[in-house]
Design a protein that fits this description.
Blueprint lengths: L9 H5 L7 H7 L1 H7 L13 H16 L19 H22 L11 H7 L29
Helix pairs in contact: 2-5, 4-5
Length: 153
Amino acid sequence: MSNSRDPMDTDKLINALPTHPAWQQILAEWGVISAQSTVRHFSLPQGIPREIRAYLARAHSVGKASLGTESAIDFENLYPPFVTNIQAQVIEEAASLGQGLALEINKPTILPHPAIKEEEVKTSYPTSSSRVAQPSEPEKFDGNRAMFGHFLT
């Protein structure tokens, strides 16, 4: 597939800074970035050039928005022209993080209805234990694509 983009964006796209050390810095600090990022805030380190921030913010947003679509993310449309391996890796991680965080937010949790008291539950639904099972704490998506399938239900 070829990257078909608006010709007016050519200057921004060429200025993806493929040899800039910030790409390597982002990859090295990915654990911190993913831990500090939320669905609403993509936490990149200070000093990352605006052009690189733009690519990663777009990838993060596409990942979040992909939950409502039936098709897979087309990463090729997120890449700059003449993408390097490290750029592709960082962009894919940003999109996957956005998608994982959106899944985490949308994951249903089972909570007892506030109008039902624990005693009523015990008497209405006899169980072998004397306590009502409590829902476990939801796991936080750690930003690693290897764990992504764990959050799909």
